[in-house]
Specification:
Blueprint lengths: L3 E2 L2 E2 H16 L33 E5 L4 E5 L5 E4 L5 E5 L5 H4 L4 E4 L2 E4 L3 H7 L13 E8 L2 E9 L7 E8 L7 E8 L15 E4 L5 E7 L3 E7 L19 E4 L5 E9 L4 E8 L7 E7 L24 E4 L2 E2 L6 E12 L2 E12 L2 E2 L4 E9 L5 E3 L15 H4 L1 E7 L9 E2 L1 E5 L4 E3 L5 E8 L3 E6 L6 E10 L13 E8 L4 E6 L5
Parallel strand pairs: 21-28
Antiparallel strand pairs: 1-2, 3-4, 4-5, 5-6, 7-8, 9-10, 10-11, 11-12, 13-14, 14-15, 15-16, 17-18, 18-19, 19-20, 22-23, 23-24, 23-25, 25-26, 27-29, 27-35, 29-30, 30-31, 31-32, 32-33, 33-34, 34-35
């Protein structure tokens, strides 16, 4: 790394950064206050991007009994953490024994499978069919009720098939062994046009304590179904029958999957997040919101996502990109959201650029989620490192040069390359040639409004300024920090900006 930046030493930069970011942090973190020095609380010991755990389709679960976070994923992968920053791989792809035990299998159609899941396996591929059994489950969600841990999973006839089941198993601990399988929903053998695909279940409570399950895919769209919220029937559908699918919330045919719904009591909205694409560079996360748990859900333009046809619905939250000269990020999605202590965290899988393609592993990333003045979610482009927005940030302190990614509104295949913009203390925005291309201002404790003029990126972007982890540093032992902007336009176009203070 270049030890001289703009003619001053790296040490001076660190002191400057600490002074500037202290005001933004607020009162969170030991030794941090509105006027004091800033230290990134979670920086020390964070792993580099190429050393992260791998969990495909991660669903976050916080176990109150052990104060531990678990991320459960497709192919039986599991990782755990106590701080959302440093993760331990507990099971990798296809290590089903970690959840079901070494003794819990039978030889079925030439493939070892947990006996617990026998009914679901026979539902999607009966032994009489002579077909080879599928070898993995997809996108589990773990919930706890009265000391029992319930895992909702999906099992499909074959990759890309619309014939699937959602099942439920239970255990006395998050890591199993899981037993007592029940089939919750099935789309196997159903021939009606527009039927849902029974995959990707996620449960949530609404503000009144009712329990719901959202699920589905591009086959038929995304659905919601109410479950019992108490008693011996907890977590089972209120409307019986494995072919009773509930209410459609998001239309199909656009490669969407992985729905997740959560409620923000400050905004009064339920937010439904989904992912679009094929797990390569066109994969992206999107969101719509509603005042009711079962919809209707609308995007920032007011369009009901239940009526989307021929294009991606909702506002884009994240897409593939290249920040500066760093390796590109792709396939950001199939996320879950953790709400804890008034903060919101996106837990998603991410692949990295590799030549013209992407790396094979789906690494686990955690990003903090904020809400702009209009109550729309915007995601910190940097990995979570215990950052917190707060009071005291000023235009003078946040001013500087940023790498800026202007995501498209729709789904695109190419990596979006960042551009270098300078946010000046006088409220102007200039590009690399020093041409004036817009304006910016700060309002409230941490809100930012950015107006860009000219070109297809013209518009007003409302978002949040936050301190955070610096993706450009090479020494992970120092408490570096940078500012970032994350905002969205009135048409649903995300803008990300990462400060270049420590850029190599």
């Amino acid at each position: 790394m270049n030890k001289k930046i703009f003619g001053i030493s790296l040490a001076a930069v660190m002191v400057l950064s600490a002074g500037l970011l202290g005001a933004c942090q607020g009162n969170e973190g030991e030794g941090n206050d509105a006027d004091g020095p800033y230290v990134m609380p979670g920086w020390s010991g964070m792993k580099k991007d190429d050393a992260l755990v791998a969990v495909h389709d991660p669903s976050i679960f916080y176990d109150e009994a052990s104060s531990t976070y678990y991320a459960f994923g497709t192919h039986f992968a599991v990782a755990s953490s106590t701080d959302l920053m440093n993760w331990t791989q507990l099971a990798i792809d296809n290590q089903w024994q970690k959840l079901y035990g070494n003794a819990s299998f039978e030889d079925s159609y030439g493939t070892e499978w947990p006996a617990t899941l026998r009914d679901s396996v026979n539902e999607v591929k009966p032994a009489s069919s002579g077909s080879k059994a599928i070898t993995t489950t997809w996108a589990p969600d773990v919930e706890e009720y009265n000391g029992t841990y319930y895992m909702y999973y999906s099992l499909t006839k074959s990759f890309g098939s619309s014939e699937s089941v959602i099942g439920r198993v239970e255990a006395e601990s998050p890591m199993g062994p899981y037993i007592n399988n029940e089939i919750i929903l099935s789309s196997v053998g159903v021939t009606e046009s527009g039927k849902p695909n029974c995959i990707d279940p996620e449960l949530f409570y609404d503000k009144d304590g009712r329990l719901w399950m959202v699920y589905g895919s591009a086959y038929g769209g995304l659905y919601i179904k109410e479950l019992y919220n108490s008693g011996d029937n907890w977590g089972l559908p209120k409307e019986e029958g494995v072919n009773n699918y509930g209410k459609k919330l998001w239309s199909g045919s656009n490669n969407q999957e992985g729905p997740f719904i959560f409620y923000n009591e400050d905004t009064g909205y339920y937010y439904m997040m989904v992912s679009y694409g094929d797990l390569n560079t066109n994969y992206n996360m999107r969101v719509a919101r509603s005042e009711n748990p079962d919809g209707p859900y609308v995007d920032i333009t007011g369009a009901d996502v239940a009526n989307v046809t021929g294009q991606a619905g909702g506002n884009k939250i994240a897409g593939n990109y290249i920040m500066g000269d760093a390796n590109g990020y792709a396939a950001i999605g199939h996320n879950s959201v953790l709400t804890k202590d008034g903060k919101y965290y996106v837990v998603a899988h991410v692949r990295r650029q590799s030549g013209t393609g992407v790396t094979p592993d789906h690494h686990l990333y955690v990003f903090q989620l904020f809400f702009n003045e209009d109550g729309w979610p915007v995601m910190n482009p940097n990995r979570y490192a215990a950052e917190a927005v707060g009071t005291g940030v000023t235009m003078e302190k946040a001013a500087g040069t940023y790498d800026v990614v202007l995501h498209s509104e729709g789904t695109v295949v190419d990596f979006v390359q960042s551009q270098e913009y300078t946010f000046n203390a006088d409220g102007t925005v200039t590009d690399a040639s020093a041409a004036n291309i817009g304006s910016w201002t700060l309002t409230g404790d941490y809100y930012v409004n950015i107006t860009l003029t000219g070109g297809d990126w013209a518009g007003t972007y409302k978002g949040v300024v936050a301190p955070g982890w610096d993706m450009y540093v090479t020494d992970y032992t120092e408490a570096y920090a940078t500012f970032s902007f994350t905002a969205i336009s009135e048409t649903g176009r995300p803008l990300w900006a990462v400060g270049t203070t420590a850029k190599s």
